[in-house]
Amino acid sequence: MKRIVCLLFLLGSFLTGAENTPVGKDPVFTQDGKSILYQITDKEGTPCLWQWDLQSGRQTPLNLEGQAPFRLKNGRMFYRTAGLFAELCELDLTKKSGKTVELPQPMAGTPMEKPNGEVVYPAGFDDPPELFRWNPATGKAVPEKSFPRTLQALSADGKWMVLTSKFQGMRNIALIDRKSGRKVFETKQTSERGCYGAVFSPDSRYLVYQTTGIQPISDLALLDLRTLKVTKLTSDNADNHAPAFSPDGKKLVFCFLKGDLYRLKIIYLP
């Protein structure tokens, strides 16, 4: 497969240097922060996993069909197979192999890790979807009833959650204090796609989310949870999405679509 690289755009004070970045989407840092896993769709339309070494810049295929890789706090990594009823697989980076994980209902969206290591994930085709709680240590998964079905993200410290909300009929996000149940922040985007794709930093200090304007433009915004100040991270007339923090919280990787290709970018946070 042909490898294509692009120059990282300058992003104001959040960017400390330029890097060559690969074509791909759905990126996630490995536990050591030294590489990024992502997917590339081949000419037959099959999603395949690749690894990007940040020190050498080398981009290596893992020879695995898969998509949407994610990492738990303990370093274990997983991905989903392609197809309507995708299976969950645990990734062994050393062997470049995957092992199927049995779930009562397949994941239908982004998994969210609780402070105790359990994972809440959406399943099924309802809107909003049904939630399940999966224990990676025991392999057991059961229906999750303690969170609203509109759950979108959980903070690592367990203090915050993000729910999908509505403003003038459009999809938005609401930040909720889990202890009090109080809504402390809510977006009010009126574009067709609204706001979504929220992800917390590992130290639970920041929240990054996608905010859309005229399609297909989508930007990333950073919410400081201490001050509730919002800072725009991108403004490049591209479709920016799928943000993921590095384990130390100092970097953010995401993909953007401008033209016909998805590419990866990294920005450095204050």
Explain how this protein is built:
It is a single chain. The chain has 270 residues and is an all-beta fold. It folds into 3 domains: 81 residues; 44 residues, no CATH class; 121 residues, Neuraminidase (6 Propeller), CATH 2.120.10. It contains no helices and 25 strands. The strands form 7 sheets. Strands 3-4-5-6 form a 4-stranded antiparallel beta sheet, with no helix packed on it. The termini are far apart. 37% of the residues are buried.
Describe the structure concisely:
The protein is mostly beta strands and 270 residues long.
Put simply, the count of helices is 0
Q: What is the CATH superfamily of the largest domain?
A: TolB, C-terminal domain
Give me the count of strands: 25
Strands of the largest sheet, in order across it? 3-4-5-6
Overall morphology:
globular
What is the SS-derived class? mainly beta
What Rg, in angstroms, do the CA atoms define?
18 Å
- Cα-to-Cα separation, first versus last residue: 36 Å
The CATH architecture designation of the largest domain is 6 Propeller
Domain module count:
3
Name its key features.
270 residues; 25 strands; 3 domains; 4-stranded antiparallel sheet; mainly beta
Secondary structure elements and their pairing?
Elements: E1 5-7, E2 20-22, E3 25-29, E4 35-41, E5 47-53, E6 59-65, E7 67-71, E8 77-80, E9 88-92, E10 97-101, E11 112-113, E12 119-123, E13 130-134, E14 141-143, E15 151-154, E16 160-167, E17 170-177, E18 183-186, E19 195-200, E20 206-212, E21 218-224, E22 230-232, E23 239-245, E24 251-258, E25 261-268
Antiparallel strand pairs: 1-2, 3-4, 4-5, 5-6, 7-8, 8-9, 9-10, 11-12, 12-13, 13-14, 15-16, 16-17, 17-18, 19-20, 20-21, 21-22, 23-24, 24-25
